Amino acid sequence: MNYQCNLRAYRCAIHVHTDCHDGEKPVAAVVADARAAGVEILFLSDHNEMKARDNGWGGMHEGVFVVVGAELGTRDGDHLLTFGIRDKVATKLLPTPAALELLHKLGAIVFAAHPQGRRRVIGKPKHRWSHWQNKYFAGVEIWAYMHDWIDGIKLAKLPAMCREPGKFITGPEPWVLQEWDSLAQTRHVAGIGALDSHGKHLPLGLRHFFPWAKDGILPYAQNFKALATYLLAPELSGDDRKDERIFIKALAAGKCWTSHDELYCGREFYFAGETGEGIILPGEEIKFAPGLELRARAPQEARIKILNRGAVAAETVGTELRHRPDEAGEYRAEAFLGDRPWLYSNHVYLRG
Length: 352
Known about the structure:
By secondary structure, this protein is of the alpha+beta class. It has helices spanning 27-36, 51-54, 96-105, 145-151, 158-163, 174-184, 204-207, 220-226, 240-253; strands at residues 8-16, 41-47, 59-61, 64-73, 79-83, 109-112, 139-144, 190-194, 227-233, 256-260, 270-275, 278-280, 285-287, 293-308, 311-323, 329-337, 340-345, 348-351. The chain has an 18-stranded mixed β-sheet that branches.
């Protein structure tokens, strides 16, 4: 990985619930599961609550840096993954545009949560994200792991889906990627991988009858090994509040990539623009000029694509792909292991 020497890739678990609202485990147990799974930054987001912060969580805890945010609901049924706030914010009675504007005024960083709609085990998804032209959200969950899993549920397959959930994950929805690519033509917008992890257990009386769910439905320990967002940021300063601001700002800038780590660890993935004067990271912008090269490198052989505005500009099977673009655009990289979606970068913005 050839990013700037002052940056490192942190393995993040984003959009995680605890028993402060409707998650299964207390914060301490969730942090312990995250630590065991190799998570370095844990982004908590209980529904409409900041109890974890009130209870002293936030900052470094035995090797895991905890960022406490919230998943805020709106009157329209949308969910806003929100970071950078210190106190509880009431948005449930507000329409989504008003909630976004309020949070912007408060200095919050907002991501559209599960934009493909909230999945149900039975029935169609509800509340697809429709506010793509609103300027007050910084990014979008391009891959929502729990909702990806729920979307494929068939009752006959449920035992296998609980035992080995990763085999039934299909990746980001194409229409979400299309909306993201379209929006990137007008402004910077970050894409993140999110878990929406609740770690739910079956009631004790049912566990005997459903042994394949004895560890729960998408337990934290499994979730934290499944889908990661790798965030490029400086080394920790030791000042928790300063480091939290840096991490949130880097996430909002799109200095990150999403990896389906169940397939293979994506920490060493690399995608950037390279010139004689330096590199352009995902999330950064430069004026397009001939001679710039885009370079994608995967930690093992894969089908690698470089896309511009959603269309494939270059493709190969191997560990590295180089491409010299002949036009401006918003370029990002994807990688697949066989036909399984694996890695998704953010955009490098080459403006005309």
